[in-house]
Design goal:
Blueprint (H helix, E strand, L loop, with lengths): L2 H9 L1 E5 L2 E5 L9 H30 L8 E5 L4 E12 L3 H5 L3 H9 L4 E7 L3 H4 L3 E5 L3 E5 L5 E5 L5 E10 L2 E4 L5 H47 L4 H36 L2 E5 L5 E5 L3 E6 L5 H17 L2 E2 L4 E2 L2 H32 L4 H13 L4 H24 L14 H25 L3 H9 L4 H30 L34 H10 L4 H39 L3
Antiparallel strand pairs: 1-2, 3-4, 3-7, 4-5, 5-6, 8-9, 8-13, 9-10, 9-11, 11-12, 14-15
């Protein structure tokens, strides 16, 4: 910087304007603010890099989760053999005790690598036989690694996957040795066995579920008559006798369904497969318990793509199994979307009405300022506090009152007096309503005052002005608040743990029984599913792939719901800016 510019900044240039002495200061625009500009740009770049890295990590791990991987057979220096799927590798330094037990060749290997060794984590599976799912094998322990074509990867309904060979099959109680197994026959029998399993599930859920529902309704009608007329009244006795007759008929129908299931299971027991581990241990299981199987080292690209698509289809359309670490997440998808939609339906009118009153009707003063401050402070309250409030107010106050007034025959078993999807949605509505209020009020304030005055001057009432002039212009801003509320509400987990979310929902919030949608039921949520699999499963390593793929799905759902809202908002902008869609 030159001395002339520095002196000019220090002294300025004196001029006379309207008879007054005015000192004008000259600034070097190219120099002022450059450090701050670089700092702002760097912070923005760092934020973009962190977000992109986070999303890239989730995307890569989530997309590759279901791609079939090969099975490696490892022979160690001590003569052991293990078979498993390589999952990840890492470099580490063995401890002193491990080094002391090494052979001279192994110590020489470490010395060549400066005391470090690479190790691989293999998913050996076979938990029911070995009690473990994973095994670390260091490079200095390996003598040979092969990928034989006769090793299969079996996905089972219980005990997780199995890695091994086919030792034989039993079809219609006729044993077939391994060397005589026809793979086409095995695959056909396995598909038929899966069909029998699904048939049993349909009978249990549809037919037996309907019988149990009607038995429960008869029991409730008998108790309702006793509460209404007295336990010893003629009406109660007549209701009890009629209910007993109908229950006896329903129990007979129940036994007939059980006989159908027993006949199907008898066929299942005649069709089995014998699996063998690499060390010769065998496990016999019914074919209906095998979800899918494939020779992991003998797959073409088309075969791998087919397995990949089938796994995604199972993930999106079925229920979880194996403590949520396997199977699908359909109940969690339904619960997440349904809860978010109910939350939006509740929060939108309350948030907009509150913003309208504060901006258009309330007399501005200390009370209104205090309300605005309180609303802004509510946005910073920890979400778990809302969960405690929702449990105490909605479930234990409103829910208990509803049970006493409308469902006394079900007591002491609560109907609405416990956590459910309705109370969870209302709790999240309270959590997100400050966001909607603030955004809606800002949108209303952005509508020019001249438009209000012009409408009033034309003879419109205040409500007509708000309805036909102010609200249409403010709708895009209001939609922005709803988008933010959806994004926050769909990803919240802490309050849901208190007001209705469960590890595994026994029944979805809808079924074939009136009123078809049951808002009092507990539900599953993708956010809680991630927490459960990642931190409460028996093996966090086995649950890690499900964590990534479920996180990817949750982000995709949030983006999809927000994108839909953004499209609606943009159409509203065009409509009220140009008069047409």
């Amino acid at each position: 910087m030159s001395t002339e510019i520095a002196d000019r900044r220090a002294t300025g240039t004196a001029q006379t304007v309207n008879g007054r002495a005015v000192r004008r200061f000259t600034a070097d625009v190219s120099a002022v603010g450059e450090p701050a500009l670089w700092g702002f740009g760097g912070a923005l770049a760092l934020g973009i890099i962190l977000i992109a890295g986070f999303l890239g990590l989730i995307f890569v791990n989530g997309v590759t989760t279901f791609w079939p991987k090969p099975i490696a057979v490892v022979e160690t220096v001590d003569g052991r053999m293990l078979a498993g799927v390589p999952t990840r590798t890492g470099v580490y330094r063995p401890g002193e005790r491990i080094v002391e037990a090494m052979t001279p060749e192994q110590r020489a290997f470490l010395e060549e690598n400066q005391g470090f060794s690479e190790r691989t984590l293999f998913r050996t599976a076979n938990f029911d036989l070995t009690g473990d799912d994973f095994t670390w094998v260091s490079d200095y322990q390996k003598t040979e690694v092969t990928f034989p074509a006769d090793f299969f990867y079996f996905e089972r309904r219980e005990w997780g996957p199995f890695v091994g060979r086919i030792a034989g099959i039993v079809i219609d109680d006729v044993a077939i040795p391994a060397e005589a197994v026809d793979m086409a026959l095995l695959r056909r029998e396995q598909r038929e066995a899966r069909g029998r399993f699904e048939q049993i599930r349909r009978i249990e859920r549809r037919d037996i579920g309907a019988v149990n529902y009607r038995i429960e309704q008869e029991r409730l009608s008998r108790r309702r008559a006793a509460l209404r007329h007295g336990a010893d009244s003629p009406q109660a006795e007549a209701a009890a006798a009629a209910a007993a007759t109908r229950i006896a008929q329903l129990e007979e129908e129940f036994r007939s369904h059980q006989d159908r299931i027993a006949a199907i299971r008898a066929i299942d027991r005649e069709n089995r497969i014998v699996l063998e581990t690499i060390d010769g241990r065998q496990k016999e299981t019914e074919l209906s318990q095998i979800v899918r199987f494939f020779a992991a080292n003998d797959l073409s690209f088309t075969d791998k793509a087919g397995i990949y698509v089938a796994r995604w289809h199972e993930f999106l359309t079925t229920e979880p199994r194996e403590a949520n670490m396997e199977g699908g997440v359909l109940p969690a998808i339904f619960g997440t979307v349904m809860m978010t939609m109910i939350m939006v339906v509740v929060v939108a009118p309350f948030g907009v009405i509150t913003a309208l009153y504060l901006r258009e009707y309330a007399k501005q003063g200390r009370i209104v300022s205090a309300v605005r401050i309180s609303v802004n402070n509510l946005a910073g309250v920890p979400s778990i506090v809302y969960g405690v409030f929702g449990l105490g107010f909605f479930a234990y106050t409103m829910g208990v009152t509803i049970d006493q007034l409308f469902f006394p025959e079900r007591l002491p078993s609560p109907t609405f007096g416990t956590g459910g999807i309705l109370w969870a949605s209302l709790t999240l509505a309270l959590l997100t309503v400050p966001v909607v209020i603030v955004a809606s009020e800002e949108a209303l304030a952005a509508v020019p005052r001249s438009m209000r005055e012009g409408s009033l001057a034309c003879g419109a009432s205040k409500w007509q002005t708000i309805r036909y002039v102010v609200l249409p212009k403010a709708l895009p801003g209001i939609m922005t608040g709803l988008i933010l509320a959806m994004a926050r509400g769909a990803g919240e987990v802490a309050p849901l743990m208190l007001v209705g979310v469960v590890k595994l929902a026994p029944a979805l919030p809808f079924d074939q029984f009136f009123p078809f949608i049951h808002l009092e039921r507990s539900f599953m949520h993708l956010g809680f599913h991630i927490f459960d699999v990642g931190f409460q499963s028996r093996n966090s390593e086995a649950g890690k792939p499900m964590v990534f793929v479920t996180t990817l799905l949750l982000l995709t759902l949030i983006v999809a719901m927000n994108s839909t809202a953004i499209i609606i908002r943009n159409r509203l902008k065009r409509r009220y800016a140009t008069g047409h869609f």
